[in-house]
């Protein structure tokens, strides 16, 4: 039996890691840390730091790093994602079998929370379908949405109004979601908000949330949009990668 803990670690700030996450880390026999290439070496560095900071001296956890397979940029998007997930599952299976041939407890450190635009649960499901006896535990974590609204000191929704969470791809292709008073946008490769008419829209943007290089911009979309695009390009050039998120609303949130 393999017990797999998908441990939400928030945005990489040790102060955002819950006591439940610390306990799950220390109970693990094996902790797997993915590497995403040199451009995003900061991400595995943060995971290493969390392990060094949060694992107790008497923890028996073995920390193993692995190279994450790359997703193909060609062809059908959903098909490419499915193939990518299958490749990651095969890597997980190989590592778990190699390091825990008799079974045990595995910990995976998940950015934010495993429930929100993260595919670890779907990949773990592939292990089950492959005949591996896997018991999955989810340890919730703080999301970038929570940090964004906290840093800007705003609620997520207008009073008594719905909010929709979507991706940059869908915002660019389909525009403003019908019936939404505010829209949170994740996984934007850059500037999907430019597909919207800026009239009456306000944006709250954040990059590297919770990290020491955190950057925030807010204002009317017509004014803040170009500022965000320029700052985003400069930060990506400086650090080699960027993770950002934003909230757009048609009416005041406070």
From TrEMBL:
InterPro entries: 4pyrrol_Mease, 4pyrrol_Methylase_sf, 4pyrrole_Mease_sub1, 4pyrrole_Mease_sub2, CobF. Pathway: Cofactor biosynthesis; adenosylcobalamin biosynthesis. It comes from the Bacteria. GO terms for molecular function: precorrin-6A synthase (deacetylating) activity. Coiled coil: none annotated. It is an enzyme of class 2 (transferase). Keywords: Cobalamin biosynthesis, Methyltransferase, S-adenosyl-L-methionine, Transferase. Its EC number is 2.1.1.152. Residues 4-224 form the Tetrapyrrole methylase domain. GO terms for biological process: methylation. PANTHER family: COBALT-PRECORRIN-2 C(20)-METHYLTRANSFERASE, PRECORRIN-6A SYNTHASE [DEACETYLATING]. NCBIfam families: CobF (TIGR02434). This is Precorrin-6A synthase (Deacetylating). The lineage of its organism: Bacteria, Pseudomonadati, Pseudomonadota, Gammaproteobacteria, Pseudomonadales.
């Amino acid at each position: 039996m393999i017990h797999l803990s998908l441990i939400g670690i928030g945005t990489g700030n040790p102060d955002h890691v819950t006591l439940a996450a610390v306990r799950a880390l220390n109970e693990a026999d094996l902790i797997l840390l993915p590497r995403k290439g040199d451009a995003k070496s900061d991400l595995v560095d943060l995971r290493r730091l969390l392990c060094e900071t949060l694992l107790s001296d008497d923890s028996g956890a073995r920390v193993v790093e692995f190279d994450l397979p790359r997703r193909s940029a060609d062809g059908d998007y959903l098909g490419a994602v499915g193939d990518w997930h299958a490749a990651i599952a095969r890597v997980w299976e190989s590592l778990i079998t190699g390091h825990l041939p008799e079974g045990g407890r595995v910990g995976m450190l998940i950015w934010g929370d495993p429930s929100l635009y993260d595919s670890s649960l779907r990949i773990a499901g592939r292990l089950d379908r492959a005949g591996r006896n896997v018991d999955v535990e989810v340890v919730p974590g703080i999301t970038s949405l929570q940090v964004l609204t906290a840093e800007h000191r705003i609620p997520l929704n207008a009073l008594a109004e719905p909010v929709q969470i979507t991706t940059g791809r869908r915002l660019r292709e389909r525009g403003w979601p019908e019936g939404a008073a505010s829209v949170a946008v994740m996984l934007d490769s850059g500037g999907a908000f430019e597909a919207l008419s800026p009239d009456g829209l306000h944006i709250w943007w954040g990059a590297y949330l919770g990290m020491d290089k955190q950057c925030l911009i807010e204002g009317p979309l017509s004014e803040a949009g170009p500022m965000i695009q320029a700052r985003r390009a400069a930060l990506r050039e400086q650090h080699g990668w960027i993770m950002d998120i934003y909230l757009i609303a048609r009416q005041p949130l406070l």
